[in-house]
Amino acid sequence: MAEPNLSGPITLRIPQDVLAEIEKIAAVSDRTRSWVIVRALRLYLAGEGKEILDVAGGIEELAAGKGEDMDDVIADIEKIVRGNAA
Questions:
Q1: Is residue 10 in a domain?
Q2: Is 57 among the domain residues?
Q3: Helix/strand/coil for 85
Q4: Number of Cβ within a 10 Å radius of residue 38
Q5: Comparing C-alpha atoms, which of 22, 54, 61 is closest to residue 38?
Q6: Residue 70: is its pLDDT beyond 80?
Q7: CA distance linking residue 1 with residue 71, whole number of Å
Q8: Best CA proximity match to 46, nearest among 54, 34, 58
Q9: Which residues contact 31 (CB under 8 A, 6 or more apart)?
Q10: pLDDT tens-place string over residues 24-50
Q11: Is 2 inside any structural domain?
């Protein structure tokens, strides 16, 4: 397996209860605390983090004029439902 491209060490202060859970998971899964933390961060980035970035991207697109007027979209959908699509 290829070695991951790692950053230099970082310092992170986390609540004691969170650290305790990380240490339990690391011990039970025979992994390091770093492995557990990176996995948790990746899951966050893939879920909530991605959603935050998607919303920010949508806001940027709207600001750039790349949006569609909701009334026009609804009118187009109504035409499709009635069978009057162009």
A1: no
A2: yes
A3: coil
A4: 14
A5: 22
A6: yes
A7: 53
A8: 54
A9: 25
A10: 999 999 999 999 999 999 999 999 999
A11: no
End-to-end CA gap in the chain: 54
Residue 38 located in a structural domain: yes
Classify burial at 40, counting beta carbons within 10 Å of its beta carbon; exposed 0-12, middle 13-18, buried 19 or more: middle
Q: Give the whole-angstrom CA distance, residue 57 versus residue 67.
A: 12
Distance of CA 70 to the CA centre of its chain: 26
Number of domains in the chain: 1
Chain-centre distance of CA 16, in angstroms? 25
Residue 74 structural domain = 16-82
Q: Share the mean pLDDT of the chain.
A: 92
- Alpha-carbon distance 86 to 78, whole Å? 12
